[in-house]
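User: quick one, fold this
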Amino acid sequence: MRVLVVTHNYPRFERDPAGAFVASLAREASRRGAKVLVLAPHAPGTAEHEQSGESLELRRFRYLPERWETVGYRGDLHRLSLGKPLLALALPVFMAAFARAVSAAVREFRPDIVHAHWWLPGGLLAMRTGRPFIVTSHGSDVRLLERPLFRRLGRFVLSRASAATTVSRFLADDIRRLLPELRTPIHVTRMPVDAELFAAGQSEPKAMPPRILYAGNLVESKGVALLIDAFAILRRGGVECALRIVGDGPDAARLHTLARELGVHAEISWSPLVPQSAMPAEYGASTVTVLPSRGRAEGLGLSLVEALLAGAAIVGTPVGGIPEVIIHEQTGLLSTDERPESLAAALQRMLTEPELRARLTAAGRERVRSQFSPASAVEPFLSLYEQFADRGAP
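Assistant:
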């Protein structure tokens, strides 16, 4: 089985979180006997070619002088580069180079099947190869389907795919809602998480006072303002706890201002995003990890999976794919709605009821290990490869 993986996101250095799940799937598929070629954009400081054993190869295509190769590996690609004219000008050059690289890889590698991560740009380019292709949507590309122009393009791409997969039932339902006429089968396939890496967090001593952790982007849809409001409610109620926020983003200044207005800024530890290798310790030292997302932007919430593996309890809002990780009262606690009072109540229970916390964390850890370990996550993809591969490739 020869599998060409097409992605605009792939780890650039050891423990880089960008596209880490794509790399984990590729590695596991190669261990299971597939010959895998990954095609991804070049980025400053990365090698153009890497070989892992005999069955896993990575090629990074060039598209601009190195200092300007900044189109891949960032969310701007799915935010249409609004307000970033230089990036917008680079997009056509990026896409043309990506298309040439995909064509060259098909000629040289002769894949039995192409696996594209994100329907745009990967799925669009995979569609042009003439080979059977599978598209995995991760969230940001599903949100693009809410815009009429992209909905038409997405329908065009996904209707020609052999199969589509999403990382959560929530995203699969969203595609069906937005593209009700789509006949391509949609499968829910979990993304793998490095269980052993995050398990190291279980040996980390817990911080005192008990720590609430948020790790992620500081953007409105992540609901960090909601969390700061809830934290202030907890402190006013005399609950002994501290809050740590690990992340960067456009809402940072606004969130600092809110924390000062609520009188809790000094009780919050602020940190920029840290390398993935440091996250097991962040989760492990925390009593509770919270994902307070709002609206429909949270495709699943892998930070919750990572936190459970590292020994932290989890709390979240009942939106997007979060309830697929947090089974209320079984693997964690969900707030009843998106109000700060509701989130504060769930956090207070988790902070002050140690038996509940221990039970939910242990059950959650076992559940995510069974679903998100690389060996488990790769199985449905291997089945799809076998089902749709064209063994008669020239």
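User: anything notable?
Assistant: The chain has a mean pLDDT of 94.
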